[in-house]
Write a structure and sequence with these properties.
The complex is a heterodimer of chains A (338) and B (366).
Chain A (H helix, E strand, L loop, with lengths): L1 H13 L4 H5 L3 H9 L6 E3 L4 H5 L2 E6 L2 E8 L2 E7 L4 E10 L7 E6 L2 E5 L1 E4 L4 E4 L11 H5 E4 L1 H11 E7 L3 E7 L3 H4 L3 H9 L16 H8 L6 H7 L10 H6 L13 H4 L14 H4 L21 H5 L2 E3 L6 E3 L15
Antiparallel strand pairs in A: 1-5, 2-3, 3-4, 4-5, 5-6, 6-7, 7-10, 8-9, 11-12, 13-14
Chain B lengths: L1 H9 L7 H16 L2 H14 L4 H13 L3 H14 L4 H13 L3 H11 L7 H13 L3 H14 L4 H13 L3 H12 L5 H13 L3 H14 L6 H11 L3 H14 L4 H13 L3 H14 L4 H13 L3 H14 L4 H13 L3 H25 L1
The chains are: A alpha+beta (338), B mainly alpha (366).
Chain lengths: 338, 366
C-alpha cells in the first residue's frame, strides 16, 4: 500500500493524463469523464466500492474454497483445499463492476489473475471468465493464473492511462481508469503547451472527424475490433461482448456512414445511457421518412427500437445480459446469428 | 538415414586415368577410414582433373555432409545431378542433405524423384513419409505407408509414422488401433506422444499435457514432444511455459517448424517485431509459401505501419489460398486503413461467407 501512495504522489507531480489537467478548458467533457464507468475501469483494491461493500465473500468448487475478506483497508484473497491454503492481498480491481470485477494479486514477483471474480447480479463470486475450464490439479493451479509480462501490459494498458513500466512487469506509475490521454494521444504535451501559452503548436487531432472504421480501430485498441474476432473467434454467443464485431454484421452497417459509428450512439465521455428509448433518435437518423431512402421504416413501433432490434442476450457464466449490437429483426426462437 | 549415405559409399569407383588414379584411390581410402577432411581435400584436387566425374562429386558431397557442411554438399550433389539427373544415389543424398538442414519441401521433391527408382528402399519410403508429415500432408503419408504396413505390420517405426499421420489426419479410430499396437510393446515415449496428439485434437488439454510430460520423462530427446507440449501450454494460456517448451524442442531439432513458428508468434505477441520477423523468415525456409507464416509476416508489417507491403503480401496470400479466413480479415483491415472502403467491404463480405460456410460444415458434421 505504501508503494501505491508513493506512486499516486508521483502522478500528481507529473500531472499528465488525468481529467483534472484537461478540465481547465474542457470542463463539460472532463466532468462527465470523472463519473463515467470507463474512468473506473481500474481501481486500487483498497478503494474498490464493491470490495468495501462486500467484506466477506466466499465461493466453493470441488475441494477448493475461495474467499475475499476485508481486513483494515485491504482485501485478502484466500484459497484452501482443506489441507493447505494460499493467501495474498488483492492489489488491483479490474472493471467498474457493472458486469463484474476481476482481481489481480502478486506472488513471488509475478502477477496473478484470481480464479474468482465478483458479479453484481449474483452479489457474490463465481469463476473468472476462462477459469472454469482450467487445470486445477493442485492448490497452486486452483488459486489463479499467472499473467505474463505481455498480457500484464495489455491489461493495464487498457484499464489505466499512461502506465509506465520498469523492467518486464514492474509498474512504475499509472493513472487508474480510462482518462483523457487514453484516446487523445498527445494530451499531456497539449496540456503542457497550453500552460506555456503555446497551444497552437500542439493542436489535438479531431477524433470527432474520424470515419466509422477509423473510430472503430481507435475504440478497438481496447474493445476488441472486428478483425480480432473475425480471425480468432470466439464463435457463438460468447462473441456478444464484442460490440463492433456484432455491429458490422448488421445489415444496416455502412463503413462510409458516420451515423453507425460507435460514437453515434455512445458518448465516449459519459456514462452508458440505460433508457432504451434514448437511442430512438439515433436509429431515426436513418430510419425516418426522408432520412435515408434505403432504410426501412419499422411497421411495429417508432419507439424503443433497440428493445426489439438489439435484444439482450445471456452469456453462460458471465451473469449479465449483454445488448446484441448486431441490429436486426430478431424473432423469438431464432438461432443466435454469428 | 546412415543407410542412405551408404548408397553413395557403395557407389565408390576406381578410375582409369593414370595420373589421377592414385589421387582418387587415396581419397576413397581416407573417406572409408573416416578422415573426411582429408578425403574432401583429395576429392577436390581430383575434380580439378576430372570435373565431370559423377562418383567423385557424389563422394565429395557425402564427405562434406559427414562434416556437417551441408550447403557445400548440396552444391556438389547438384553438380552430380547435372551430369546424370536420375542418379539415385545423388538424388537420395541430396534429399538427405536438404532434410538435415530443415529444407523439408526440397527434400521431399528429391525423394519423390528417387522413390520410383528405388521402390523397395524402406529408408527412402519412410523418409518421404516423414517429410509429408512435417509438411502437414497427412493423407499423402498414409497412402505411402499403407502398402508397407501390409508387409511389415509389426515394425514399430512404421507404426509410429503411420499412427502419427492417422491421428493428425483426425482418423481417430484407425489411429487408435495403431496406438494400441504400439502400446502392446509396452509404455514408450513414442506411444505417449501419439496419445497426446490424439488428445490435443480432441481438445483434452490436461490429458495431452500429462502424456507429453510422461513422454519427455521417458525420452527427453524425443523429437516433437517438447513442441507438442508447447502447443498444449499455448492452449492452456501459459505462454511462458509454451516458449520454454518450444526452445527445448529447438535444442533437439533446430529445424522444428512448429517450434520456430510459434516462438515467432509469441515474439510478435510481446511486440518484439524484429525477432518475430527473423523467426518467420526461418519458418518460410522450412515451409516455403506457407500461408500461416505469410499471414504472420503481414501482421507484423501492419503492426509496424508498413501497410502497403502488408497489402501486397495479403493480396498474394488470399489469391493463393482463397479459403484462408484470417488473410481476408487482415486484408479488409488494410483496405480500410488505405481508405479503400469498397475493397474493404468486399473482403469483409468474403469473411462472412467463409465463416458461414465453416459453421455449416460444423453443423453438418455433428
Amino acid at each position: 500500500m505504501i508503494r501505491w501512495f508513493f506512486l499516486a504522489g508521483q502522478l500528481a507531480a507529473l500531472g499528465t493524463s488525468a481529467a483534472q489537467d484537461c478540465e481547465v478548458c474542457h470542463r463539460r467533457e472532463a466532468e462527465a469523464v470523472t463519473s463515467a464507468p470507463m474512468s473506473h475501469a481500474l481501481q486500487h483494491a483498497g478503494q474498490s466500492e464493491l470490495l468495501k461493500n462486500n467484506p466477506d465473500l466466499s465461493f466453493r468448487s470441488g475441494n477448493f474454497s475461495y474467499s475475499i475478506r476485508r481486513e483494515n483497508n485491504r482485501s485478502i484473497y484466500s484459497v484452501t483445499d482443506g489441507t493447505g491454503s494460499i493467501s495474498a492481498p488483492i492489489e488491483w480491481a479490474f472493471g467498474a463492476g457493472i458486469v463484474g470485477q476481476t482481481y489481480l494479486y502478486r506472488r513471488d514477483d509475478a502477477w496473478y489473475e484470481a480464479a474468482v471474480s465478483f458479479y453484481p447480479d449474483l452479489k457474490g463470486l463465481d469463476w473468472t471468465p476462462g477459469h472454469a475450464e482450467r487445470f486445477r490439479r493442485n492448490l497452486e493451479e486452483a488459486t489463479g493464473r499467472t499473467i505474463d509480462p505481455a498480457e500484464t501490459r495489455r491489461c493495464f494498458g487498457c484499464h489505466s492511462t499512461t502506465a509506465v513500466w520498469s523492467g518486464a512487469s514492474d509498474l512504475k506509475s499509472l493513472t487508474p481508469g480510462v482518462q483523457c490521454a487514453q484516446c487523445h494521444a498527445g494530451a499531456a504535451q497539449h496540456a503542457a503547451a497550453v500552460r506555456r501559452g503555446d497551444a497552437a503548436r500542439t493542436v489535438m487531432p479531431k477524433l470527432a472527424a474520424m470515419e466509422t472504421e477509423e473510430l472503430a480501430n481507435l475504440c478497438g485498441k481496447c474493445h476488441p475490433s472486428w478483425a480480432d474476432i473475425a480471425a480468432n473467434g470466439p464463435r457463438g454467443v460468447l462473441n456478444i461482448r464484442f460490440q463492433f464485431y456484432r455491429l458490422t454484421n448488421s445489415r444496416c452497417y455502412d463503413s462510409a456512414d458516420r451515423r453507425i459509428a460507435c460514437t453515434a450512439c455512445h458518448d465516449p465521455h459519459g456514462s452508458l445511457a440505460k433508457d432504451s428509448s434514448s437511442y430512438d433518435s439515433k436509429c431515426q437518423q436513418c430510419h425516418l421518412a426522408g432520412n435515408n431512402a434505403r432504410a426501412k421504416l419499422c411497421p411495429v413501433s417508432k419507439r424503443d427500437c433497440i428493445a426489439c432490434h438489439m435484444p439482450k442476450v445471456d452469456v453462460p457464466g458471465l451473469h449479465y445480459r449483454f445488448t446484441d449490437h448486431q441490429i436486426r429483426i430478431a424473432r423469438a426462437g431464432d438461432k443466435y446469428p454469428d | 538415414m546412415r543407410s542412405v549415405f551408404a548408397l553413395t559409399l557403395a557407389g565408390l569407383a576406381l578410375f582409369a586415368q593414370p595420373q589421377s588414379e592414385s589421387l582418387l584411390k587415396n581419397a576413397i581410402t581416407l573417406h572409408q577410414s573416416g578422415d573426411y577432411s582429408g578425403a574432401i581435400r583429395l576429392y577436390q584436387e581430383y575434380l580439378k582433373w576430372r570435373p565431370d566425374s559423377l562418383d567423385a562429386l557424389s563422394n565429395l558431397g557425402a564427405a562434406l555432409a559427414h562434416e556437417g557442411r551441408f550447403a557445400e554438399a548440396i552444391t556438389e550433389y547438384n553438380r552430380a545431378l547435372k551430369i546424370q539427373p536420375k542418379n539415385p544415389q545423388a538424388l537420395a543424398n541430396l534429399a538427405l542433405a536438404y532434410y538435415k538442414t530443415g529444407r523439408i519441401s526440397e527434400a521431399r521433391e528429391q525423394l519423390e524423384s528417387v522413390y520410383p527408382l528405388l521402390p523397395n528402399n524402406q529408408q527412402i519410403a519412410f523418409l518421404l513419409a516423414d517429410c509429408d508429415l512435417r509438411l502437414g500432408d497427412y493423407k499423402k503419408a498414409i497412402a505411402l505407408l499403407d502398402p508397407w504396413e501390409k508387409n511389415m505390420p509389426d515394425d514399430l517405426g512404421l507404426s509410429y509414422l503411420l499412427g502419427t499421420a492417422l491421428i493428425r489426419d483426425q482418423q481417430t479410430d484407425r489411429g487408435s488401433q495403431v496406438i494400441d499396437r504400439i502400446l502392446r510393446h509396452g509404455d514408450s515415449a513414442e506411444a505417449r506422444l501419439l496419445l497426446a496428439t490424439a488428445k490435443l485434437n480432441a481438445h483434452d488439454i490436461p490429458g495431452a499435457r500429462g502424456d507429453l510430460e510422461k513422454a519427455i520423462e521417458l525420452n527427453p530427446r524425443l523429437p516433437e514432444a517438447h513442441s507438442y507440449l508447447g502447443l498444449a501450454m499455448l492452449s492452456a494460456g501459459d505462454f511462458d511455459a509454451a516458449a520454454t517448451a518450444f526452445r527445448a524442442e529447438l535444442q533437439i531439432d533446430p529445424y522444428n517448424f512448429t517450434a520456430i513458428f510459434q516462438l515467432g508468434v509469441l515474439a510478435k505477441r510481446d511486440q518484439h517485431f524484429e525477432e518475430a520477423l527473423s523467426l518467420f523468415e526461418r519458418s518460410l525456409v522450412l515451409h516455403p509459401r506457407d500461408a500461416a507464416v505469410e499471414y504472420q509476416i503481414a501482421t507484423v508489417e501492419l503492426a509496424t505501419d508498413q501497410v502497403v507491403q502488408a497489402r501486397r503480401r495479403l493480396e498474394k496470400l488470399v489469391q493463393a489460398s482463397p479459403q484462408f479466413l484470417a488473410g481476408h480479415v487482415s486484408l479488409a483491415t488494410v483496405y480500410y486503413r488505405l481508405k479503400r472502403r469498397e475493397d474493404g467491404d468486399r473482403e469483409r463480405a468474403i469473411v462472412r461467407q467463409l465463416t458461414a460456410d465453416e459453421e455449416m460444415k460444423k453443423a453438418a458434421g455433428k
